[in-house]
């Protein structure tokens, strides 16, 4: 083998590497297929799939050229390697390749119109995020108008990094929404178990893997070791999730629909909701020029203002963390992290976790939080440390906005400057 330098282009994937993270997209390929299918001059649109009306087999519709339709679907399928925002729409249109009509072709062209406005969309993998394995599962009950079968959707993260996604019509016809969600949970569990096995080869061992679902009924079925008459009709192969839950490998948590990140993989969504989820799963639309600026200056990692501010009050009021008399701060922090697992905390910045933790512990022990946060701040660059402090300042009314940002390179992490920063953050 020969070393050919840093990888920048591989099988249509453009890889932009920097000290702050990796950005992967297929902008060049997107431009090529737009030109190939004569869609390079079309106007852009906000979502890849219309919410209404839903597609069906359209037996009375005017047929179109099958070869052209399949060529378009094939081109878009390869694009989903780095574009999870297109997966549900492309897979939905792919169901009608046997006899495509003008109605189906119109929806495929809509995908190209969405692509025209998001050519530079890609996945951002930040360097500073964690490596915890988490997953989300969702289902659209009886979403197919032709067969009344449901659609399963699932995504898996390593820290903040989206590494796997899926949108698939279920093989069975679910008799209830709980059954549809249960089947989707089983599919997500299978993917998580496979990822867990692969990661063990690299020295990563995962247990109590959080799997989020927005159906309490499906969670109850999965956590109940007793087989009841209400579930005896569900195929045996879907019940293996119970064993994983019982063994402590998978932990199921309920998540409200507004925080269900897999929602975009099961159904068409309104534009505001769709764009919100696209950004939350870690996708960014960055031109080459914007990418250089973002990598050098801002680092386009999600900030507290992007996602967590609306839910900050909810977390702050929901989590109760009385600190025991004999409990150390590290023990309290471990217990707090376990409590946080019960909530859809994916995407919540580590500094927000520190702030919530700081709010919930006893006031007389708040100074000790300094030692919990010190190592994290020490690992940050000057720009990111200051940006984090300014974000936290949004939640305080103590004149933080009047602070002057330190000059470039003026922070001495080994001496007093880091204590000064911690003093501002933790009100010490």
Helical amount: 40-55%
How would a crystallographer describe the biggest sheet? 5 strands, antiparallel
- The count of DSSP E runs of length 2 or more, i.e. the number of strands, is 10
- Radius of gyration (Å): 24 Å
CATH topology of the largest domain: Nucleotidyltransferase, domain 5
Distance between the termini: 56 Å
Which residues form runs of ≥5 with pLDDT under 50? 296-320, 395-401
What is the number of domains? Answer: 3
Order of helices and strands: EEEHHHHEEEEHEHHEHEHHHHHHHH
Range of strand content: 5-15%
Q: Which CATH-level-2 architecture of the largest domain?
A: 2-Layer Sandwich
* Number of helical elements: 16
What structural class do the secondary elements suggest? alpha+beta
Describe, in plain words, how this protein is organized in 3D.
The N and C termini lie far apart (about 55 Å). The protein has helices spanning about 25-35, 65-80, 85-95, 100-115, 175-200, 215-225, 240-245, 270-280, 290-300, 305, 310-320, 330-340, 350-360, 370-380, 380-390, 415-425, and strands at about 10, 15-20, 20-25, 120-125, 135-140, 150-160, 160-170, 210-215, 250-255, 285. It has a 5-stranded antiparallel sheet. A 5-stranded mixed sheet has the order 7-6-5-8-9. The radius of gyration is 24 Å and the shape is globular. A hairpin with a 2-residue loop joins strand 6 (about 150-160) and strand 7. It folds into 3 domains: about 25-120, no CATH class; about 125-260, Ribonuclease H-like superfamily/Ribonuclease H (Nucleotidyltransferase, domain 5), CATH 3.30.420.10; about 300-425, no CATH class. The protein is built from 16 helices and 10 strands.
């Amino acid at each position: 083998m020969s070393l050919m330098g840093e990888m920048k282009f591989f099988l249509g994937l453009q890889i932009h590497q920097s000290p702050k993270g990796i950005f992967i997209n297929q902008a060049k390929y997107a431009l090529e297929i737009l030109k190939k299918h004569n869609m390079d001059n079309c106007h852009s649109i906000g979502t890849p799939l219309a919410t209404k009306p839903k597609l069906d087999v359209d037996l009375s519709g005017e047929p179109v050229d099958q070869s052209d339709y399949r060529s378009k679907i094939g081109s878009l399928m390869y694009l989903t390697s780095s574009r999870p925002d297109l997966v549900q729409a492309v897979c939905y249109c792919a169901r009608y390749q046997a006899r495509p009509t003008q109605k189906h072709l119109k929806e495929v062209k809509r995908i190209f119109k969405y692509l025209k406005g998001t050519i530079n969309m890609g996945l951002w993998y930040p360097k500073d995020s964690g490596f915890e394995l988490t997953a989300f599962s969702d289902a659209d009950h009886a979403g197919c108008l032709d067969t009344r079968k449901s659609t399963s959707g699932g995504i898996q993260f390593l820290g903040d990094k989206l590494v796997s996604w899926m949108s698939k019509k279920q093989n069975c016809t679910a008799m209830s929404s709980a059954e549809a969600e249960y089947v989707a949970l089983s599919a997500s569990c299978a993917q998580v178990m496979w990822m867990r096995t692969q990661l063990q080869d690299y020295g990563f061992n995962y247990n109590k893997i959080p799997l989020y679902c927005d159906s309490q009924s499906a969670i109850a079925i999965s956590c109940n070791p007793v087989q009841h008459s209400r579930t005896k009709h569900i195929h045996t192969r879907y019940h293996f999730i119970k064993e994983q839950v019982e063994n402590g490998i998978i932990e199921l948590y309920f998540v409200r629909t507004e925080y269900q990140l897999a929602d975009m993989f099961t159904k068409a969504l309104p534009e505001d909701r769709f764009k919100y989820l696209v950004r939350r799963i870690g996708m960014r639309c960055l031109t080459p020029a914007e990418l250089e600026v973002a990598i050098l200056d801002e680092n386009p990692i999600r900030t507290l203002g992007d996602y967590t501010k609306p839910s900050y009050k909810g977390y702050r009021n929901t989590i109760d963390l009385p600190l025991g008399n004999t409990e150390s701060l590290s023990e309290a922090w471990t217990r707090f992290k376990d409590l946080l697992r019960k909530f859809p905390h994916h995407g919540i910045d580590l500094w927000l976790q520190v702030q919530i933790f700081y709010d919930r512990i006893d006031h007389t022990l708040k100074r000790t939080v300094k030692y919990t946060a010190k190592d994290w701040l020490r690992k940050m660059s000057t720009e990111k440390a200051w940006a984090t402090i300014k974000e936290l300042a949004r939640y305080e009314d103590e004149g933080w906005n009047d602070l002057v940002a330190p000059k470039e390179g003026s922070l001495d992490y080994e001496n007093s400057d880091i204590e000064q920063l911690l003093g501002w953050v933790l009100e010490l």
